[in-house]
Design a protein that fits this description.
heterodimer; A: 460 residues; alpha+beta; 2 domains; 7-stranded antiparallel beta sheet; 10 helices; 18 strands; 26% strand; B: 11 helices
Chain lengths: 460, 262
């Protein structure tokens, strides 16, 4: 029995390779994918490597501190301007933005954190204001503590930091931008809206060195006017308003691997046409009657066809994706996509292999889906138009759709299969790689199931 | 000539797929238009007034899908005859070849214009019902969609015209290519793929030219009612560009049909 199936597969393979237009069609798919991917990679560029590496913006109420000592304050209240709004005490080398620091802080939704030098981030308790915060400096070690009452202190974390003898110490308030979706003139864009954080402090003191007056200023450029940010004191209670973020910026959020395969969207058109014709031309010429007379188990014929078109497309797809990757990468590198923001990647790296092999799998499953739809509709015109409506029209419409609708389309329609080539996750990621390919595989299986059921009960 | 038109009308009428494709044009135009219109509201706008949503254009988004069935219908009107060798019978009965192609153009365009009118009016009606529920109310500067409004009438009539020109473009390409799959792929590439590829052309002048003069992007400027001053070309000039594409395809189709062996 399996031997007979082997014959069937070989017969279908012979059919495929002896039609010059189909072989040519797959070569066109490879050519379109490689050439267009390389072309797309050659335009555009990035300044990720010259962009600042850290964000360091907040409002700082400070006084000098010399040698060993400590800074302590009670955060009596904090406005929930952002889940990651920060209020706390800090020791910082100077008031220059980007200079080394250590801080213990409280957030509205993420508890107490001990952070230092844009690198260290240690979680404390889940408490919110009011609470006491303290930093001590002993040699090069800075330790952060939290306390509910100002008498029993719990250590949150410590860090070794080489700072000059005299540093600035005091209270600070920051509040990051809110990511906002905005729609205007029929298009959707993503932007950041700055938020203003506000917190109140009391029982503030700095020990170490001579007692000095508190000074306050914005560190880094503030998105707000100097009227909005600032600090006032009355009877030992400070009200501090500040905006910004103290964080290492993630550099380079372009998916350089996914972007190596932009031509696939056009190569897939050729795959659709070849795979649809592989079945509909048999119906059109009446060849299908000869085929079914030679092997009456019609379901098997369709499975053999799916196997042949799937395998052939997989091989062609592998050539297309590997070629596109190898030719696109040098173009990206020439356009400024270089380490450290964009490390070099190799064809045989794990994620690259997943994208390259997965891209070929995507095309193979697309071919099987096309074959199934071709077998159901039996007409090349209708099948090709339907598949183009599914795979090309959404690409055209994405820009005008609200983001949540676009993501939904990318999740539940066969287009989800394209996700297998993604290697990073962003706000506009619709679905994870393997689940995305699974969605397409599901549609392909469904189409084949319906096709086999129909081909058995309908006249050829 | 009248008898040739009548013959072509009979051919088109008696193929079951024609009716299905025309129904498909109406349904897909209205369905996609409604889905997209229903998915857009003023929630993400700075304020409903500052949304500057082009509501007639939004309601007519279905054209992006509806035109596909028109492409198939018009291409098949030509290529089906080659697939079945019917063309030899057709030409032995009507040896004046330009008459055959003219008759096909008249019949296909006429039925497409009828279906397009139904689809466009349906889309606007659905838009009129959905839009106010999504915040696009008269209070926010969005009066109910109405053909009494000049720009809306232009968008609606222009979209019907757009469908007709797409039919002629497809028929012309069908006469040039003569193969169903090949002709559909060619038209789809012209419509959908050209504007995407054009974005990546390195030379800015060539890029701008391709983006503005691609048949779909040029033709659909007729739908724009908000920010018309910002368009690279007047709406009627845009649909004129599409008319040039359609004419070029038809002229080449006529020439090849006339001088090639069937």
């Amino acid at each position: 029995m399996s031997d007979r199936f082997g014959h069937l597969v070989r017969a279908e393979w012979t059919k495929f390779r002896s039609v010059r237009r189909w072989v040519l069609g797959l070569l066109i798919a490879i050519g379109l994918t490689v050439v267009l991917s390389t072309l797309f990679a050659s335009v555009g560029g990035t300044d990720a490597n010259s962009a600042p590496a850290v964000a360091d913006r907040f409002h700082f109420v400070h006084q000098p501190m010399t040698g060993d000592g400590s800074v302590v304050a009670r955060v009596s209240g904090q406005e929930p301007s952002h889940d990651w709004a920060k209020a706390g005490v800090m020791i910082k080398q100077s008031t220059a933005s980007g200079s080394p620091y250590a801080a213990i802080l409280v957030t509205p939704r993420n508890g107490v954190r001990f952070q230092a030098d844009f690198r260290t981030d240690i979680g404390g308790s889940g408490r919110t204001a009011p609470l006491w915060l303290k930093l001590t400096r002993s040699g090069t070690t800075i330790t952060g503590y939290e306390s509910a009452d100002g008498t029993t202190w719990t250590e949150v974390g410590s860090v070794s930091l080489s700072l000059p003898q005299t540093v600035e110490a005091g209270m600070f308030v920051a509040s990051p931008e809110i990511v906002e979706i905005q729609r205007q003139f029929g298009g959707t864009s993503i932007g950041g809206r700055p938020t203003l954080g506000r917190a109140t402090f009391d029982n503030a003191s700095v020990s170490g060195g001579e007692p000095a007056k508190w000074q306050h200023e914005d560190i880094g450029a503030s998105m707000f006017t100097s009227d909005e940010t600032g600090a006032t004191e009355s009877g030992g209670t400070f009200t501090v308003s500040g905006s910004g973020e103290i964080i290492r910026l993630q550099q380079g959020d372009d998916d350089l691997i996914f972007n190596s395969f932009t031509g696939v969207v056009f190569g897939l058109m050729a795959v659709i046409v070849v795979a649809v014709l592989f079945i509909t031309s048999e119906f059109k010429r009446g060849m299908i009657r000869t085929t079914f007379a030679a092997s009456p188990r019609r379901g098997r014929v369709l499975v053999a066809k799916a196997l042949v078109i799937g395998l052939v497309t997989f091989v062609a797809g592998l050539a297309a994706t590997a070629g596109a990757f190898l030719l696109s990468q040098p173009q990206f590198r020439a356009n400024g996509y270089r380490p450290p923001a964009y490390p070099y990647v190799h064809l045989f790296d794990g994620v690259v292999m997943r994208a390259v092999v997965g891209g070929a799998l995507f095309l193979a499953l697309l071919a099987v889906l096309s074959l199934g739809i071709g077998a159901i509709l039996r007409r090349s015109a209708g099948a090709i138009a339907l598949l183009i409506a599914i795979f090309i029209v959404p690409q055209i419409l994405f820009g005008g759709l609200p983001l949540n609708v676009a993501l939904w389309v990318g999740r539940v329609t066969p287009v989800a299969g394209l996700a297998i080539m993604q290697t990073t996750k962003r706000w506009d990621t619709a679905i994870d790689p393997w689940p995305g390919l699974g969605v397409l595989a599901g549609y392909a299986a469904l189409a084949m199931g319906v096709a086999i059921w129909q081909v058995r009960r309908r006249d050829a | 000539m009248r008898s040739t038109v009548y013959t072509e009308w009979t051919k088109l009428r008696t193929v079951p797929s024609s009716a299905w494709l025309l129904i498909g044009t109406v349904v897909s135009t209205v369905a996609l238009g409604s889905l997209i219109t229903a998915s857009v509201n003023t929630d993400f706008c700075p304020s409903p007034v500052e949304c500057f949503e082009d509501t007639p254009k939004l309601s007519l988004t279905g054209v992006y899908l509806g035109q596909l069935t028109v492409v198939v219908l018009a291409v098949l009107a030509m290529t089906n005859e080659y697939g079945t060798r019917m063309i030899q019978t057709t030409l032995s009965l009507a040896p004046r070849r330009y008459r055959v192609l003219s008759a096909k153009a008249i019949v296909v365009t006429a039925v497409v214009l009828v279906a397009a009118t139904v689809g466009v009016l349906g889309s606007l009606l659905v838009g009129r019902l959905i839009l106010p529920r999504n915040g696009f109310t008269p209070l926010h500067g969005y009066p109910p969609l109405s053909l009494g409004d000049g720009p809306t009438l232009r968008a609606a009539a222009g979209t019907v015209l757009y469908f007709g020109l797409i039919a002629l473009l497809s028929l012309g390409v069908g006469a040039i290519v003569r193969d169903t799959a090949g002709a559909i792929t060619t038209v789809v590439s012209l419509l959908y793929v050209l504007p995407i590829v054009a974005q990546f052309v390195p030379d800015p002048d060539v890029r701008k030219f391709l983006l503005e003069y691609a048949p779909m992007s040029a033709g659909l400027t007729i739908q724009v009612t908000v920010g018309v001053d910002l368009l690279p070309m007047r709406p009627w000039a845009g649909i004129g560009v599409l008319a040039c594409w359609a004419s070029a395809a038809m002229i080449a189709g006529f020439a090849l049909f006339r001088y090639r062996d069937a």
